[in-house]
Amino acid sequence: MNYIEPSSHYADIENGELGNNSGRYEKKLSNMEGIYADNVAFQQAVKSGGEEIVYKVTDKHPAARHGDMIIGMTQMQPGLIGDEFYVTRGHIHATANRPETYYGESGEGLMLMESPDGQINIQELRPRVMCYVPPFWIHRTVNIGSEPLVMTFFYPADSGQDYEIIAKSGGMKSRIVADGTGWKEVPNLSYTPRSDDEIEQVLATADKED
Amino acid sequence: MNYIEPSSHYADIENGELGNNSGRYEKKLSNMEGIYADNVAFQQAVKSGGEEIVYKVTDKHPAARHGDMIIGMTQMQPGLIGDEFYVTRGHIHATANRPETYYGESGEGLMLMESPDGQINIQELRPRVMCYVPPFWIHRTVNIGSEPLVMTFFYPADSGQDYEIIAKSGGMKSRIVADGTGWKEVPNLSYTPRSDDEIEQVLATADKED
């Protein structure tokens, strides 16, 4: 039996990266096409700064899969497209009965969550606050501050990500926009609720032991 | 379908407790019988302060089990029994192919880990350092500082804990003792290696999908 070696990972909040990581990806502003309500503002922003990295993720994937866990860090820049705060693409887990915990490290954000049947839940992300995203919730992070939002995260290694679920419904049901110096939730006018069949398909991705 | 509600949890480092928790336990010094090498020193310490709470754990268990995760916080007092630093009881997961991530919040500690075949691995626990404990490793925390050691932790909800594995082998293979102002690893003279059959029994607790 070859046991996986234990490992240590320094969460470098200043640089927004998990030490001793095994994976990394970055999203540029130009990768966020179709996410924001104001497409004119988006295209203008891309023209002037499309190569800007709007968020990066570093993580540690274990060698094993089922039963194991992934740990990592996200650093997300502040910004607005029109009056809408910068967001991550957002996803539901491909095996949808998998949860995730996000842990605020610096900056101010929100976790915007939506259940398959269209309930919205919003939790604040602040330093030393954990947000528990239960099984079956679509989730996306929003930077509502003026500084980078840095979070660590923890989730089962066999979760997977389905990024298409949000595109299929025309976005998440709510958007988060600037409201004076704060934020407010507004309806996404492009949103189409999932049909019963679509909801069933999401639930059916849960593994059989659930 | 009733979806579990998302939740937020403030990690209160000062008080060593996870906010909005659903579970708690505490260990007194008198509960730690048989853990330390110097039993005379242990009995004296119990006589003078056996009701002292040496560590406490607060956590959030989700409603669901398989595929879900548990998050929590441990606060552990500093101290010595003879020259041996205060430790937690330690455990392996009852479903042994389940990992755990510990995340240093304050204080100075070590994660002392042992594979079923008797390999020892030691990682430092410091603020903003994550220690990834892979599947199949017995693990115990050691407070090597003079202040409380506070950690948050994250692990699969269907892991379970087997605390007996350490007692059966006469303790973990190594002990952590004071060495001047630092620490050193010394052999545990009461330790008996696991037999091949015992190792097989541990590995057999892994779930079938692994």
Please describe what this structure looks like.
Two copies of one chain form a homodimer. Chain A has one domain: Sandwich (Jelly Rolls), CATH 2.60.120.10. Helices cover 11% and strands 40% of the residues of chain A. Chain A has helices at residues 39-49, 164-168, 196-203, and strands at 7-12, 17-18, 23-28, 53-60, 69-76, 80-81, 84-85, 100-106, 109-114, 120-125, 129-133, 138-143, 149-156, 174-179, 182-187. Chain A is mainly beta and 210 residues long. Chains A and B meet through β1, β10, β11 and β13 of A and β1, β10, β11 and β13 of B. β11 (129-133) of chain A pairs antiparallel with β1 (7-12) of chain B, so a sheet runs across the interface.
Structural class of chain A: mainly beta
Q: What portion of residues of chain A belong to β-strands?
A: 35-45%
Can you say what the CATH homologous superfamily of chain A is?
Answer: Jelly Rolls
Largest interface, by Cβ-Cβ below 8 angstroms: which chains and how many residues each? A-B, 56 and 56 residues
Question: What is the fold named in CATH at topology level of chain A?
Answer: Jelly Rolls
Number of helices of chain A: 3
In quaternary terms, these chains amount to: homodimer
| Largest β sheet strand count, sense and barrel closure of chain A | 6 strands, antiparallel
Which stretches of chain A of 5+ consecutive residues score pLDDT under 50? none
What is the helix fraction of residues of chain A, given as a range?
10-25%
* Average of the residue pLDDT scores of chain A: 96
Q: Can you tell me the CATH architecture of chain A?
A: Sandwich
Q: What topology, given as strand order, has the largest sheet of chain A?
A: 3-4-5-13-8-11
The tally of strands of chain A reads: 15
Distance between the termini of chain A: 29 Å
- Listing every helix as H and every strand as E from the N terminus to the C terminus, the arrangement of chain A reads EEEHEEEEEEEEEEHEEH
